[in-house]
């Protein structure tokens, strides 16, 4: 092969490699002293503080079907310490049924989080703004002082399997600072 052909063949091969399917990027770590948590998130995703809503938004760089897969992380106060995690979940489910259009619970469980904090998980579908069918997963960590950390992941229902693993990166790594 002549030198120019070798150079062109190499450039074509490198272009195909660069534009082809890429391996998932290494996760990044986010530490949020305000909420007392840390977590990992996919390297190409972004974390943004939404000050007006007092939440963190972890979002996918892709927008599909007029929706962007994301996780909202919010610290709430005032949970009844006398309630069991199962009772708290039942109350949350009742509230979601009132708030979410076409709400359908897929699963619910109380468990001990890896950090030792009592936790709950809800997976449900509903119709979001503009009639978009969404699947959401909420992980709730209940702290002993009456606060609860909510991490709510959302994606278009038809694309849930595509985003389940990246959303799981956040859910599986979520930890109170110091645990």
Give the topology, please.
Elements: H1 3-19, E1 28-32, E2 37-41, E3 46-50, E4 55-59, E5 70-76, H2 85-99, E6 101-112, E7 118-127, E8 133-142, E9 148-156, H3 160-173, E10 175-176
Antiparallel strand pairs: 1-2, 2-10, 3-4, 4-5, 5-9, 6-7, 7-8, 8-9
Task: Summarize the model shown.
With 179 residues, this protein is of the alpha+beta class. It is built from three helices and ten strands; from the N terminus they run αβββββαββββαβ.
Account of the 3D structure:
The chain has three helices and ten strands. It has a seven-stranded antiparallel sheet with strand order 3-4-5-9-8-7-6, with helices on both faces. It starts with a helix and ends with a strand. The N terminus is likely disordered. The chain has a single domain, classed as Protein Transport Mog1p, Chain A (3-Layer(aba) Sandwich). It has 179 residues and is α+β, with helices and mostly antiparallel strands. The longest helix is centred in the N-terminal third of the chain and has 17 residues. A hairpin with a 5-residue loop joins β7 and β8.
Total helices: the number is 3
User: If classified by CATH, what would the architecture be?
Assistant: 3-Layer(aba) Sandwich
The CATH topology name reads Protein Transport Mog1p, Chain A
Overall mean pLDDT score? 85
Tally of structural domains: 1
CATH superfamily annotation? Mog1/PsbP, alpha/beta/alpha sandwich
Biggest sheet descriptor: 7 strands, antiparallel
Helix content bin:
25-40%
Instruction: Note the beta-strand portion.
Output: 35-45%
Shape assignment: globular
Low-pLDDT stretches are 1-22
Gap between N and C termini: 60 Å
**Total beta strands:** 10
Rg: 20 Å
